[in-house]
Amino acid sequence: MAGLHPARLFKNINAKIAAIPMVFTALVVFLGGTLWTVVYSFTNSKLLPRTTFVGFEQYERLWATSRWVVSIQNLLLYGVFSLVFTIGIGFLLAVLMDQKIRFEDAFRTVMLYPFALSFIVTGLVWQWILNPQFGIQHIVRGFGLEWFTFDPLNNPQTVMFGLLIAGLWQGTGFVMCLMLAGLRGIDEEIWKAARVDGIPRWKVYLFIIIPMMRPVFITTLVIVASGIIRLYDLVVAQTSGGPGNASQVPAMYVYDYMFQAQNLAQGFAASSMMLLSVLIVLIPWAYLEFGGKKRG
């Protein structure tokens, strides 16, 4: 075959052989499991998988269920605010940290520490903090401000913002570290040239630094977005989907139908829709990262 060089084929042959089990496992477990889930979402499987195909019946039932529609609306609301504030606050913190401040290592450790906690722990901690009986509302009223009210988790209109506070607290430090790594990769000569030309610092960040950090922003966007789509344990720990169904998310719907309602096909259909949302995030990222390089 033209262009096939045996020397290249057998280069690093030991590493390629060692990678075979990992590649095989990934293909069988991930790709095989994904295809199995999608195929059985078109069946009427209940407690056990069945091969009786019913077309798009499960998807029609899915989108006709108010709980699923509410969970999608909640995920969109949470996702938009989480993306904007996590990346925005993380970048601002990275800019402040990049000023060569004293005790930078200590501040960076403190900011990154919440990311080391599980979402279950984070959810329980913020459930206590936002509890009106002994949380923020109780503390503020202890200073004599009896009119103060802050109870977001028990209000269907504000419960997603209560979840958002906990999510931002945990994820912002990680985004800050990613942005800080990108800022530290900027050539110092750019700053020197900007100072010589008298360009305001905010213009340097807006028109020079941020465009140069495009790969960092895209990667951060994908990481944050994938975490948003998989949102589950934070909701379970803080609200269990309540009050009512006000804080339901797609992952809870999948879990409940697959393991509690014993309706595998409905859970598979919801999982397939979540997979579709992941692909909507990953495909543009892959195109921006690899398509542009090939054209270049």
From TrEMBL:
Record-linked InterPro entries: ABC_transporter_permease (IPR051393), MetI-like (IPR000515), MetI-like_sf (IPR035906)
Transmembrane segments: 20-42, 75-97, 109-129, 159-183, 204-229, 268-288
GO BP terms in the entry: transmembrane transport
One of the Pfam families matching this protein, by short name: BPD_transp_1
Entry GO CC: plasma membrane
Domain ABC transmembrane type-1 stretches: 72-287
Location of the protein in the cell: Cell membrane
Membrane topology: Multi-pass membrane protein
Domain of life: Bacteria
Keyword tags: Cell membrane, Membrane, Transmembrane, Transmembrane helix, Transport
CDD domains: TM_PBP2
Principal location: membrane
Family to which this protein belongs: Belongs to the binding-protein-dependent transport system permease family.
Protein name as catalogued: Lactose transport system permease protein LacF
Gene that produces this protein: lacF_13
